[in-house]
Amino acid sequence: MALAYNRIVIKIGSNVLTQADGMPDVARMEHLVDQITEIKKQGKEVILVSSGAVASGRSLVKISEKTDAVGSRQLLAAVGQVKLINTYSQLFGRHDLICAQVLVTKEDFRDRLHYLNMKNCFQMQLQHNIIPVVNENDVISVTELMFTDNDELAGLIASMLNADALIILSNVDGIFNGDPKDSNSEVIQEIGHSTTGFSQFVTTQKSQFGRGGMITKCHMAHKVAQLGIAVHIANGKTTNILQRVLQEEVVNTRFIPKKTASGKKKWLAHSGSYANGVVQVNEGACAALNSAKATSLLPVGVTAISGTFKKGDIIKIISESEKYIGLGIAEYSSEKANELVGQKNQKELVHYDYLYLNPDIK
Predict the structure, then answer these.
(1) How far apart are CA 40 and CA 144, in angstroms?
(2) C-alpha of 107 from chain center
(3) Distances in whole angstroms, Cα of residue 49 to Cα of each of 11, 66, 148, 332, 341
(4) Which of 100, 121, 94, 122 has the alpha carbon at shortest distance from 37?
(5) DSSP strand pairing (277-281 vs 230-235)
(6) Are strands 314-318 and 324-329 parallel, antiparallel or unpaired?
(7) CA distances (Å), 120 to each of 158, 291, 315, in order?
(8) What letter does residue 106 receive in the DSSP assignment?
(9) Phi, psi at 107, each rounded to 5°
């Protein structure tokens, strides 16, 4: 039975699009484009998050080994992104489909207004039957401006666009309960809301050509599933993998989605690095926030405020033991919040509708 997804984000990793010698695998790209075309014919919307710019650049430019890593990556990405998007344009063009290039940095998700402008741009493309091809702008993304990897970027895009599903194509069949190279290890086919501690069974080895590893995939997938979006991790080198995932005909790992969160909560879930202040709360407030009942953060449960923030800013919420509880949008400034610390019968500092709770603390 086919999975009832209408809007799908597909992330293709470096190891899927790259041959053993580091050169781009155009035949693989062509096969994946053919599959995406079939999905489009079913009336579904597809957003493609694709790595591969550096590999494409490597096929065009020879760089001295003495060149520093950041400079090499910037040069290869600058040259390679042109070839990558042109290849996609040609391949989709064979099916009379148009694709668009969208290059982003982590900073693009920081401001709420900028975030909504970007969301509108994506929606306009989808309305005109255009396939957005998204990649990190490696030309200007260095150190703190970089995403952990394109998995993080794909999660942000899926959350922004209220996608039904995110399919991450890697070079393995899914999340294994041990070392994938061990014949006794098996793919975990479903991961529920309460699963934590992925490091207990996932190896920390990073992929050969990409920046991330399976641990980062797990944490990102878990967060996105908590927001109501199904996440699949599957082997992008398997023939007809996309159709087979959607028809439930192939082994892969599926993170089961929770009840859909609001758009604002989806934005907040990925905004931890943009918090302007930290609010420490007592055990009672921690328990109330994590109960099944919808609860706002009240000053009576606050024990300390650090940093400066104004109304509308993102603030980080921690326990007295400094455990990360969640994120929220402040209803008033840090100055006023400091005046109300510990007081009863005061206006909430963070309303429930603008509160995102860390799923790993439950």
Answers:
(1) 36
(2) 14
(3) 5, 31, 14, 37, 44
(4) 94
(5) unpaired
(6) antiparallel
(7) 14, 35, 26
(8) G
(9) -65, -25
Instruction: Work out the pLDDT band at 244, boundaries 50, 70, 90.
Output: very high
Fill in the amino acid letter for 38. Answer: E
| E-only strand ranges, 90-138 | 98-104, 130-136
Give the list of residues 6+ apart from residue 150 with CB closer than 8 angstroms, or none.
Answer: 11, 13, 14, 49, 50, 51, 135, 136, 210, 212
Distances, alpha carbon 282 to alpha carbons 249, 278, 340, in Å: 48, 13, 15
Please, which pLDDT band fits residue 40 given cuts at 50, 70 and 90? Answer: very high
Q: What is the pLDDT of residues 145-198, one digit of tens each?
A: 677 778 989 999 999 999 999 999 999 999 888 777 788 888 999 988 666 656
The amino acid at 289: L
The total number of residues written for the chain in this structure: 362
pLDDT value for 69: 78
Mean per-residue pLDDT, 342-353: 92
Q: Tokens 């484009």 identify what position?
A: 33
Q: Extract the tokens encoding 78.
A: 């600058």
The pLDDT confidence band at residue 208, using thresholds 50, 70 and 90, is: very low
Please, are residues 326 and 296 in contact by the beta-carbon 8 Å criterion? Answer: no
Confidence (pTM):
0.77
In sequence order, the 6+-apart residues with CB closer than 8 A to the CB of 134 are 47, 48, 49, 50, 102, 103, 104, 153, 154, 157
Q: Cα-atom radius of gyration of the chain, to the nearest Å?
A: 22
